[in-house]
Write a structure and sequence with these properties.
Phosphatase 2c, domain 1, 2 domains, 5-stranded antiparallel β-sheet, about 50% helix, elongated
Length: about 450
């Protein structure tokens, strides 16, 4: 009961399966002795006495299987596979032995084979725990002295019992109970050590991830640029502590700003490390911020040798509020959305993903004339790809509906509403499925308004 209680209380801990198997093993061992006890049988009901031989036969075989699987949870590598193989052999022997007992009434037809499996498991356990070199190589424990002591006590008891039988000596059953109790205590203590060690490592990893999350937050812009004529909102929602999404503002002066958004393939720490490299690469591209093709070519050349098989999709939007013009280019990224006069325009101007060819420079540029009332949306695919319980994606059509339904709301309110709609789309018990980054840019009348050019889209190669 104690081992089952530990397994229940620490069910989130890595390595907790050893307590489940240990609980099963000790329960089977205890039940085996109950079915063999003359005192218990003498006071039991007739149906229990009739069923006891069958239960005893089943338990006699299964105690070896449960013990082997318990030991396998503390081992690794070749030893773990060997113990699991022996446990599988023991299970097959158990099926054969129980079947033969039911058919013939003979309880020990394959007991020698079962004892052979038990001896192999016990010998492996004793040799591994008593030889430090083997223990360090094949046990998942950092400290194995207690387990070695228990194994030695149990092995000596089992060896003396097996040697005594051929000689006609009768060793009291109490010694068997004491030997198993010592071994069970040592085994459980070692298993508890494993759980605590794993929890300490997990806590250390979580602390390091928290630090990594703080560092990643520090490399993102602390605020949005304050340009006359633009209202910018940025929403960043990582799926885990660290993310592969990234965005940056290249604010050149009071009328010019470049907006970069990127999505690294994969999630977690590897993607986050690449995202941090994009920060450095983006800063080196400030000198050519007015040229989206040059920016993307520079980023691809800088990053390609560092991606190690991963890919990055990127979009870059250059805004000139003095002339009401924008330039846009992308590398395998979802389209730029432009909301204008009640219609949503999708602007795709894509070249190859970063990481495909280091020398790729074919990033077509689209020129856009804009005017007050226009709205730009840059986003990663985490916005459109979340799936509901039926497996349907949130999709472009729902994104367009949210933008249309909330066209009069400020940029920040639109971002908040869109994220809320995405969360509602997910199943109630589902976690976020991808990193999400959304940048909304509203073009507003400037303090000193000058007439913008007639709004148009022109593609430039």
């Amino acid at each position: 009961m104690l081992t089952f209680s530990i397994a229940l209380l620490r069910r989130q801990s890595r390595g907790i399966r050893v307590f489940l198997w240990l609980g099963i093993w000790s329960s089977v061992y205890g039940a085996l002795h109950i079915t063999q006890s003359p005192l218990v049988l003498s006071v039991s009901s007739p149906w229990f006495r009739a069923a006891a031989p069958y239960a005893n036969n089943v338990l006699m075989y299964l105690v070896v299987v449960a013990g082997g699987l318990s030991f396998a949870e503390l081992s690794r590598g070749v030893l773990q596979r060997f113990i699991q193989f022996l446990a599988s052999v023991g299970f097959v022997i158990a099926v054969i032995g129980v079947s033969l007992f039911i058919r013939t009434g003979v309880p020990d037809k394959v007991i020698p084979e079962n004892n052979w499996v038990a001896a192999c498991i016990l010998a492996s356990l004793a040799a591994t725990t008593l030889i430090p070199a083997l223990a360090r190589k094949y046990l998942v424990l950092h400290r194995f002295g207690i387990l070695a002591f228990g194994s030695l006590a149990f092995s000596l008891e089992a060896l003396s019992a097996n040697l005594a039988r051929p000689l006609g000596w009768n060793i009291p059953l109490l010694f068997d109970h004491i030997g198993f109790a010592i071994f069970l205590f040592c085994f459980g203590y070692s298993a508890l050590q494993l759980v605590f060690d794993n929890e300490r490592r997990l806590l250390s990893v979580e602390n390091e991830l928290a630090i990594a999350s703080d560092i990643q937050a520090a490399i993102l812009p602390a605020s949005v640029p304050n340009l006359d004529g633009l209202n910018i909102s940025a929403a960043y929602c990582p799926m885990t502590a660290v993310a592969g999404d990234f965005y940056e503002f290249l604010a050149v002066d009071e009328t010019h700003v470049g907006i970069l958004i990127a999505d690294v393939s994969g999630h977690g720490v590897p993607a986050a490390l690449i995202a941090s490299m994009i920060k450095v690469a983006a800063q080196s591209a400030v000198s050519c911020a007015h040229d989206p093709q040059a920016v993307l070519t520079s980023l691809n050349r800088t990053l390609s040798g560092q991606l190690r098989g991963q890919f990055v999709s990127t979009a870059y939007l250059w805004l000139d509020t003095g002339n009401y013009t924008a330039l846009y280019s992308a590398a395998g990224h979802p389209p730029l959305l432009l909301w204008r006069q009640g219609a949503l325009h999708r602007i795709e101007s894509n070249g190859l993903l970063f990481g495909v060819f280091p020398d790729a420079d074919d990033y077509p540029v689209t020129s856009i004339s804009f005017q007050p009332g226009d709205r730009f949306l840059l986003y990663t695919d985490g916005v459109t790809e979340p799936e509901n319980s039926q497996g349907d994606s949130f999709g472009d059509s729902r994104l367009e509906r949210v933008v249309r339904d909330h066209q009069s709301r400020p940029a920040r309110e639109l971002s908040t509403r869109l994220l809320s709609e995405m969360q509602d789309w997910l199943p109630s018990s589902a976690a976020q499925q991808d990193d999400v980054t959304l940048i909304v840019v509203d073009v507003c009348p400037k303090a000193r308004e000058r007439p913008p050019k007639e709004a148009q889209l022109v593609e430039v190669t």
